[in-house]
């Protein structure tokens, strides 16, 4: 099994970053290749994404959910994958996210992609887009306050 570990700091409080991350249906806004995430119930999600040029679907179970601290998951169908996202306050009122993803490449295309670091780079891009989404949501509040005088 392969493991990817990445982290990023976002300029938003932990509660806001955690809330944004747990709106799973919004993942296509910042995750490359993710077409749709449907919430089945409080603990189960159905994913549809483009992986290695092909549309894949799988189900996942949320295995750990501690508000403002951690989200963990594992696939229950499709490609084997699991992971954790940890949220912790940073020194400047922001949030540090640490992501660990475990996955098992299933075919030659996925194995080559793993060897070339394609998924690692995709995760990095996803985290940067997540940062933009969270920080952009924060901006209207700042602008609104400044115009009120």
Short synopsis of the structure:
By secondary structure, the chain is α+β, with helices and mostly antiparallel strands. 32% of the residues lie in helices and 40% in strands.
- Distance between the amino and carboxyl termini: 56 Å
Q: How much is the radius of gyration in Å?
A: 16 Å
Q: What's the shape?
A: globular
How confident is the prediction overall: mean pLDDT?
86
Structural class: alpha+beta
Number of domains: 1
CATH topology, by name, is Alpha-D-Glucose-1,6-Bisphosphate, Chain A, domain 4
Strand order of the biggest β-sheet: 1-7-6-5-4-3-2
Helical residues, percent: 25-40%
Tell me the series of helices and strands, N- to C-terminal.
EHEEEEEEHH
Largest sheet: 7 strands, antiparallel
* Count of individual beta strands: 7
Number of helices: 3
Tell me what the structure shows.
This protein has 149 residues and is α+β, with helices and mostly antiparallel strands. It has helices at residues 14-21, 108-115, 118-148; strands at 2-10, 34-39, 44-51, 54-66, 70-75, 81-89, 95-103. The protein has a single domain, classed as Alpha-D-Glucose-1,6-Bisphosphate, Chain A, domain 4, CATH 3.30.530. The chain is built from three helices and seven strands. Strands 1-7-6-5-4-3-2 form a seven-stranded antiparallel β-sheet, with helices on one face. A hairpin with a 3-residue loop joins strand 4 and strand 5. The longest helix is centred in the C-terminal third of the chain and has 31 residues, at 118-148. Residues 140-149 have low confidence and may be disordered.
